[in-house]
Structure formats: structure tokens, C-alpha cells
Design a protein that fits this description.
Elements: H1 5-15, H2 23-39, H3 44-57, E1 60-67, E2 76-81, E3 89-92, H4 99-116, E4 121-126, H5 129-135, H6 145-155, E5 165-170, H7 173-178, H8 183-186, E6 195-197, H9 198-204, H10 206-211
Parallel strand pairs: 1-4, 3-6, 4-5
Antiparallel strand pairs: 1-2, 2-3
Length: 212
């Protein structure tokens, strides 16, 4: 049986969370789901989907954010590894970069950083909905096409043998709460000690940029 007891129980809890239920109704629903999963044989398609999605259950979450230049600060992007803070980066960007470009660069440089660390499956969370949709292929890129092409190539990789593949997700309050983070923490450059100029970053990660 592919579905574990804990996963089934969690599935029932989540699916029933939007309706009022009693312990008895919960137990009945759980018993039905458990019996159904035990008595039915998974199809080849079910097994294939399970094998494809299993690595993403353990994927490394990375939160990114970019800010254009202001009167009181320089343009920059922050790359924050939720489970590996030693990999966090703060990259100073071109002062001419606009509010959209800095968000694209934040995702792109997170991909490059993930390749450097040979992370196989990475979930990148960005607060910009348009950037996420373009990176996921929902919208066609009209700007920053070269960077989006590199991101998309990594979005279709398999993750086999350390070949980094990524998925983009929209960063929202629910996500931040799930990883016990706050927006002000994850976008604060002062809390990220590893600082690079963009030129130095591209020099250090030259090989990964060439392979992206």
C-alpha cells in the first residue's frame, strides 16, 4: 500500500477541516479511506505520479525577495534557505533594476545558488505572482527572457544525480507561518550575513551560470 497511516489521517483531517465534524464522523471517514486504500490496487498512472511527486515532499524550501534602489538603500535581493541558513545570500543589484527585474533576479540567482549546492529538488517561494506564473510557464516571458529561459529549463529537470530541478510557488502569509517566518525577517538584508555584489556573485558562480 502506497499511502501511509499518518498520511491518510492527515488527508482526512485536511479535507474535513472546512466542515463541522464530530470525532465519530472523523473516525468513520478515516476507516472508509483506509479500507479503500487497502483494498484497491494503484494504477500504473498512480504509481508514476507517486514516484514523481515523492521527492517534492522533502524538497528544500527557499524564500527569495528583491527590492529596487530607494533613497535610503541600494537595490538588492535576498535568498534565504529555510533549512540551511549557512547558504543564505544578500546580493547587491544594479541600481537601474526596476521592481520587476529585482524579483526575477532573486529567483534566477536562487536557482544558480541551488545548482552550486547540488540540491536536487528545490521549492522557490517568491512574493511576485507574475514572476511565479511566468517561471511556471503560465504566462509567456516578455521581459528578462534569458533568465526566465534558464529558470524554465530547471523547472523541467528530473533531479536525478544532483541535477537541480525547481518549482516556483507564491510566497504568502500561510507559507511563512508554516515555516515560522515573518516577512520582515525574510526580506531584511541585515539578517543575511553573506553579502555579494552582483559582479562578484556572477564571478563566483560562473560555472553554474554557464550550465543553467
Amino acid at each position: 500500500m502506497l499511502v501511509s497511516y499518518a498520511l491518510l489521517r492527515n488527508l482526512v483531517r485536511v479535507s474535513s477541516s472546512s466542515v463541522k465534524s464530530t470525532p465519530e464522523s472523523f473516525d468513520a471517514a478515516f476507516k472508509w479511506l483506509l479500507e479503500t486504500a487497502s483494498s484497491s490496487s494503484p494504477s500504473d498512472k498512480d504509481i508514476r505520479i507517486f514516484e514523481q511527486e515523492r521527492p517534492w515532499a522533502m524538497a528544500t524550501p527557499v524564500i527569495v525577495h528583491g527590492e529596487p534602489e530607494r533613497l535610503d538603500r541600494r537595490a538588492n535581493c535576498v535568498i534565504r534557505w529555510v533549512e540551511h541558513p549557512e547558504r543564505n545570500l544578500n546580493i547587491e543589484l544594479d541600481p537601474r533594476d526596476n521592481s520587476y527585474t529585482v524579483q526575477v533576479k532573486a529567483v534566477y540567482y536562487a536557482v544558480i545558488n541551488a545548482m552550486f549546492h547540488r540540491a536536487s529538488h528545490v521549492l522557490i517561494y517568491s512574493p511576485n505572482d507574475v514572476v511565479v506564473k511566468v517561471a511556471n510557464g503560465v504566462f509567456k516571458a516578455k521581459k528578462e527572457i534569458e533568465m526566465f529561459d534558464a529558470i524554465r529549463r530547471r523547472a523541467v529537470k528530473s533531479g536525478i544525480n544532483g541535477d537541480t530541478c525547481v518549482r516556483l510557488r507564491l510566497l504568502n502569509n500561510d507559507i511563512l507561518q508554516s515555516v515560522q517566518k515573518k516577512v520582515e525577517d525574510d526580506t531584511n538584508r541585515k539578517s543575511v550575513p553573506a553579502w555579494f555584489t552582483e559582479k562578484n556573485f556572477r564571478k563566483r558562480y560562473f560555472n553554474e551560470i554557464a550550465r543553467a
